[in-house]
Design a protein that fits this description.
By secondary structure, the chain is mainly α. The protein has 10 helices and no strands. It folds into 2 domains: 50 residues, Arc Repressor Mutant, subunit A, CATH 1.10.10.60; 144 residues, Tetracycline Repressor, domain 2 (Orthogonal Bundle), CATH 1.10.357. The N and C termini lie far apart (102 Å).
Amino acid sequence: MSSKPLRKPPAPVRLRRSAAEMAALKHALLERARLIYRDEGLAALSMRRMAQEFKLSTMALYSYFPNKQALLEGLWMEIFEALLAELQAVKKGRRTPLRLLEAHVRSFLGFWEQRADQFRMIYMSAGQTAGGDTVDMEQQPVYVQMVKLTRERVAACAATPPSDAALGLSTDAMVAQMLGYLLLSLGVARYPLHDRDALRERTVRDIQCTVQQGLALPAKRARR
């Protein structure tokens, strides 16, 4: 009696995710990475842990983020993309360059005040990275675009085109004042702020004065 050869079981079917599903999973990965970073620090964030938590193979995770560096870049850039969108949106309904610059500053401050954890993650943990994990911001298109937008709005406040040195210094001074306020109000919990709202308004006004003085605006234009 002849026996039929045993057939091999069919190979398991690999279901491919749709573009929408892939985008949703990538967002979920970034959100989980953000929470780990916030609650446990950078050292606790690893590719192995992410793969385990999401029940993904290492190779599957690498198709989204090839390494921890890429995961960090994705995490930071998602935040800066949201910030850039808000800064671009303030152009609507603004008439003068100084009014637009004021709206820009208020939008920047408000964005981070609503995302204090993300501000601390990006601006206050750079010195705590382990294993050389850093994000080279100057190589990120969205960050470059945001810096360019800020410089353009500062330059637009000048009566005549400013020199590169004057524009660079005025822009740097403006950013320093914005970050200084945020570092104090969001990062130094023990400091007893007398009046946060008043300090915020003072910061906005001081920035306007800094830009006006740095670009040597005529008095009549500075009063707008």
